[in-house]
Amino acid sequence: RFDSISVAPPDAILGLTEAFKADERETKMNLSVGVYQDASGTTPVLRCVKEAEKRLLDTESTKGYLSIDGLPDYREAACQLIFADQIAAERVAAVQTPGGTGALRVAAEFLATQCGPLRIFLPTPTWANHNAIMAAAGLPVETYSYLASDKKTLDFDALIEDLKTKPKAGDAVLLHACCHNPTGVDPTPEQWEQIASVVSEKKLIPLLDFAYQGFGEGLDEDAIGVRTILRQMDEAIVCSSFSKNFGLYSERVGTACLVSGSAETTKAALSQLKRVVRANYSNPPRHGGAIVATVLADEGLTQMWHEELAEMRTRIASLRKQFVDGMAATGVDQDFSFLLDQKGMFSFSGLSPMQVDQLRSEHGVYLVGSGRINVAGMNESKMEWLCNAVAAVLR
Ligand code: PLP
Ligand code: TYF
After folding, report:
1. 162: annotated active-site residue
2. pTM beyond cutoff 0.95
């Protein structure tokens, strides 16, 4: 029976990192997967995380199962970061999940089983895994316009028009809370107000994917989308992740938060979220959540985290600038200054699939086929080399 199984296509992004590792060229650069690399080219363990781990090693007294919804201190700290004091705790049902991906899957199964029948609307383009996660949970997927045809800016009129005309009351709409993946193009605060009014008027369920809090402009600044929606509406689901902002990629730490209008509704929703969790992975892993809870319970470690996060954020902005300047210095016709307005790790470079192929085969620079660049994978010491390689395929 197993001999009829066919080979599944590799993950369009993670597959590239395997190819990159196998590439024997000495000078190469991985700008595919969304992972932050420091100036030495490594993805560091944050100092605040190391310190929290030391403390945990001394104080942790059990490896017993966590409850289905995870560590209470973790959940409280995660919700505080997302909502600040805007939402009363009794209105938030939160479960600690294995990463942002786990949060999205829990949210999607919750929507499919508790709010259906409904469809979910994803922006075009979006993170490829969104489609897979929603489909796996049994949610029919539809799309709404996002990126303009220049591939550099938001087509806001088309977005609003689509949200007004395509979904029906009760459908869900997935919004990237900040640092849109793969484009780096985010709505302005005024645009968030308008998005929130349409989502509210149309009685849609907002599902906010918040995987990059702190990578755009700052922890609170990046929460503006979530908080604007929740000023205009009682209900939303937020899926957050500590993979990027704590560098806890492999520890799998995220949160699915459901906000409702009343404590009673929240209680019922939490019981259903826990039912989804039980049937998937029973309860979340302890270590990553314990790290986050330890850091955020300690003023000194929290301060250290803020500094380390700010360092990653400002370095990415500086890499954007160096790349734009470096490309201008090569003398190519293309102007890359649009990268300066974009937020987070990613931007579309505008390179065609053929140019992306050529960049990989001739120069050892790995981008995703769409031309998406992970700016956080660039490196000061190899910037000139990178710009020359990109210029070579543009000529
Ligand atoms: N959502 C978006 C938009 C992402 O880019 C990612 C990236 O990994 C995730 C969710 C999931 O993150 P995690 O690694 O925490 O599962
Ligand atoms: O978009 C990215 O690069 C990150 C990491 O299946 C990632 O979100 C990529 C692909 C994938 C899981 C995570």
Report:
1. no
2. yes
